[in-house]
Amino acid sequence: MLRAALTAVLRGEPGALARVVDGPAELLGKSLLVRPDGSYVGGLGGTAELDRTAAGAAGALLEAGRTGTVAVPADGAGPDSSRTGPGGGAYCPGGLTLLVESSVPPPRMIVFGAIDFAAALVRTGKFLGYHVTVCDARPVFATRARFPESL
Q: Of 20, 43, 53, 82, which one is least surrounded by beta carbons within 10 A?
């Protein structure tokens, strides 16, 4: 599962790694990788419903491009849900906390015109994490030497 997560990151594919950081000792460190289509790899070591609940929570953070923690209550019901685990009982005694680390491709910035102002804009865009591309019809101006931060 971790190999799948690393492979996705290296390919620039979006994904969210959800790991149990607080809860029952037997679940600590268990993880799953959630993809944008809702599919997931791995498991938390509990019930299938727990994995689906965790995948849904991680998918919501992935969609927003955010990293953070998510609390899963003992009955698996979310703040806006009345669902419970199989048979209505607790499927994770005491509940648990997930650390969800989202990895999404950087946003694109396209700069038209290879002028001095564009050089400053490219540096700023790269600093902010953008995938920057410079476009100019004059190939002598749009060079790697003038814009080393762009692609």
A: 82
